[in-house]
Design goal:
The chain is of the alpha/beta class. The chain has 12 helices and 15 strands. The radius of gyration is 20 Å and the shape is globular.
């Protein structure tokens, strides 16, 4: 199999790339070359904004699979349709499980759950991308497969505030400082390690039965947000001092203090329970099963952060934001 990953060195795409190489896939990466390359991958260096250079980099190639890990707008999708129509047997678009109906009408999410998110422009753009691709599939057979990850982690800290590429939340926990959990912390959430995700994803690559279909690929483990923060704290060698604050209050406070993405990520995603029915991916990829519990996966993630001081980025602005939230809601502080 000959595959092209646009991007390929991110939180999810790096483990997928490593597994693809282990499976003897002839893998190419098309990106700017700013991150550490994955061993065994053939690098095609180009900035996607420079179409002439992109066309030169891919000239003469035919692909069994093209995967775009970094497409966020319909313009990105139209560019890819123009670039790869006729030269790729399958095009996989990385969407997001945040596209599913918010607030949800049903607590169990399937691929048939309606797509609607009035809170987050990121999700609405992903929906627009999906619609454009499915129109191209219906009208002229463009060979698209849509994949919707949900809170998949490997080299990020998957909490709602103070984490992801930041180390702020871990630094606060280790210093005995309080951390903020949205709501009362009892809503249900699904965490998926990228190494597990990779197994399901590779089963969709060059799978002609997956053309015209959409999939989410998640773990079957379900945790409350309180359990998530407590598990993260244990992995960090400390305890979590949790302050519960409503998602609406956090969002309003964030708007007032110029943290514009918080409203989308909370009201458009994490404040709602997210339980996924994975029967579809298991039908198409019968050997797919997620085996890494969050308690083990987050230990690996924190070991990765602790291995290099450069990775442990503590954001002073985030700290001020969290301290402001806590100060204005001190009556909710659980000592």
């Amino acid at each position: 199999m000959k595959a092209l990953f646009i991007g390929g060195t991110g939180n999810i795409s790096t483990p997928v790339s490593k597994l693809a190489i282990a499976k003897d896939i002839d893998l190419y990466h098309l990106n700017r070359g700013n991150r550490e390359p994955v061993t065994g991958v053939t690098a095609l260096k180009a900035d996607l904004r420079d179409l002439a250079r992109v066309r030169k980099a891919i000239a003469g190639h035919k692909w069994d699979v093209v995967v775009n890990w970094i497409a966020f707008s319909p313009d990105d999708i139209q560019r890819d349709i123009d670039l790869f129509e006729g030269s790729a047997r399958q095009y996989i678009f990385i969407s997001s499980a945040s596209v599913y109906q918010k607030p949800p009408a049903n607590h169990v999410i399937t691929e048939s759950t309606p797509l609607r998110n009035p809170y987050w422009d990121y999700s609405r753009n992903k929906i627009d991308c999906e619609n454009l691709l499915m129109s191209a599939y219906r009208e002229r057979g463009f060979p698209v497969t849509i994949v919707r990850p949900s809170h998949t982690y490997y080299s990020v800290i998957p909490v709602s505030l103070g984490g992801w590429e930041e180390f702020t939340v871990i630094d606060r926990m280790r210093k005995g400082l309080p951390v903020v959990v949205h709501g009362d912390g009892t809503s249900l959430w699904t965490m998926t390690h990228a190494n597990d995700f990779a197994k399901g994803f590779l089963g969709l690559m060059d799978n002609q039965h997956a053309i015209g279909e959409s999939f989410h690929i998640t773990s079957d483990e379900v945790l409350t947000w309180n359990q998530i923060y407590e598990t993260v704290a244990r992995a960090a060698g400390c305890e979590a001092k949790i302050v519960h604050i409503s998602s609406e209050y956090i969002s309003n406070y964030a708007d007032k203090h110029n943290f514009p993405t918080v409203r989308g990520t909370l009201l458009g995603d994490k404040s709602h329970s997210a339980l996924f029915d994975n029967s579809k991916i298991k039908r198409f990829v019968p050997d797919y099963v997620a085996i890494i519990p969050f308690s083990e996966g987050i230990k690996q993630t924190l070991q990765w952060f602790d291995a290099d001081p450069v990775r442990r980025v503590v954001n002073d602005e985030t700290n001020r934001f969290l301290e402001g939230l806590i100060e204005t809601n001190s009556r909710f502080y659980l000592k």
